[in-house]
Design brief:
The chain is of the alpha/beta class. The chain has one domain: Alpha/Beta hydrolase fold, catalytic domain (Rossmann fold, 3-Layer(aba) Sandwich). Helices cover 42% and strands 15% of the residues. It has 13 helices and eight strands. The protein has an eight-stranded mixed beta sheet, sandwiched between helices. β3, α2 and β4 form a beta-alpha-beta unit. The longest helix has 22 residues. The radius of gyration is 21 Å and the shape is globular. The N and C termini lie far apart (77 Å).
Length: 337
């Protein structure tokens, strides 16, 4: 083959390869999300738990506006990380809050232990130890999705140290297993999470988080989830993820909403339909679950000092889908509590 022709074919092959990689979104990250850029510096809290040396990644963002003397802790959901709070961190810091945003054990920039007994109590205890280390004696909690379940558990365990509680489309507003949703084993969860692709995760998020809408900015959060699950730590990431799914399904907080003592802000995108294991349920049971336009109102009546804010035509992640409207309502709601 002539040298010029060989060089031409090599360049064509290289261009095709690069184009294919770009189109298929094949970025991958390390087991603690190494390689994915966070909006603020990530610090490490090292501690011992269940006989193991672990570390939690977290961001500690000081106020950029006039300090109001208050701290707020942001708790991420199952398919999210501390980084997905990027817009909320900025809005809250501008409003004068000190904003602490941890990645829980098993997630994102934090440890993925080989063996860990996951419970919301354990994750709440881990978070409390982090706040003790940071010298924070009282805080507002803001939890999204699964983070709402964790924030509820934390508030129940540490009521005098929880100034306010705020939840954004929390899951766990109902007890799926009590309604009749079938159980999925940890092995089945691991099998499902080992097969994530960019296309499958994007389809799920587009349908459930954004009501069929999509913005280019959302691609980053798909890439984050898929790149972590398919990266060099795939085995430990997938196994910890499966254990966490089991925790969510088997450890409801629904029955204890009535015991919350602090002022509580409940922010609901009413078009959300998120419900664990819906795909395993009968049509009759499936129709009963994940109806956030009903669940928000029901749970607001259970929580003694609740304020309900509803966003029509918004899904599971209103803080990402409509940040201006969300942050205006959040700041106003926290001020009024």
């Amino acid at each position: 083959m002539q040298p010029k022709r060989a060089l031409y074919l090599t360049l064509l092959l290289l261009a095709a390869t690069l184009t294919g990689c770009a189109n298929q979104q094949k970025d991958t990250y390390g087991p603690e999300l190494q390689g994915f850029k966070y909006p603020y510096p990530v610090e490490r809290f090292k501690f011992s738990s269940q006989g193991q040396s672990l570390q939690m990644g977290y961001m500690d963002v000081k106020p950029t506006g006039t300090p109001n003397g208050r701290s707020i802790v942001l708790m991420h959901g199952k398919n999210f990380c501390a980084a997905t709070w990027e817009g909320s961190i900025k809005a809250l810091s501008n409003a004068g809050y000190r904003v602490v945003v941890p990645d829980q054990i098993g997630f994102c920039t934090s440890s993925k232990p080989d063996h860990y007994q996951y419970s919301f109590q354990q994750l709440a205890l881990n978070t409390h130890r982090l706040l003790e280390k940071l010298g924070i004696k009282k805080a507002t909690l803001l939890g999204h999705s699964t983070g709402g379940m964790l924030a509820t558990r934390y508030a129940l365990m540490y009521p005098t140290e929880t100034e306010q509680l705020a939840m954004v489309n929390p899951i766990g507003l109902e007890d799926w297993k009590a309604i009749g949703v079938p159980y999925r084993t940890i092995d089945q969860w691991a099998q499902a999470d080992s097969q994530l692709t960019y296309e499958s995760v994007r389809r799920y998020q587009q349908a459930n988080y954004y009501l069929g809408r999509w913005e280019p900015a959302y691609d980053r959060w798909v890439d984050m989830v898929v790149g972590l699950h398919n990266g060099s730590g795939k085995r430990e990431v997938v196994w910890n993820s499966a254990l966490i799914w089991d925790m969510i399904f088997t450890q409801p907080v629904y029955y204890e909403f009535k015991d919350l003592k602090m002022p509580t802000l409940l922010i609901i995108g009413t078009s959300d339909t998120t419900a664990l294991n819906r795909d395993l349920a009968s049509a009759e049971v499936g129709a009963k679950i994940g109806n956030y336009h009903v669940l928000g109102k029901q749970v607001a009546k259970l929580i003694p000092r609740a304020t309900l804010v509803e966003f029509a035509d918004r899904g599971h992640s209103p803080q990402i889908e409509d940040p201006d409207q969300f942050h205006a309502a959040l700041l106003q709601g926290l001020k009024a509590l």
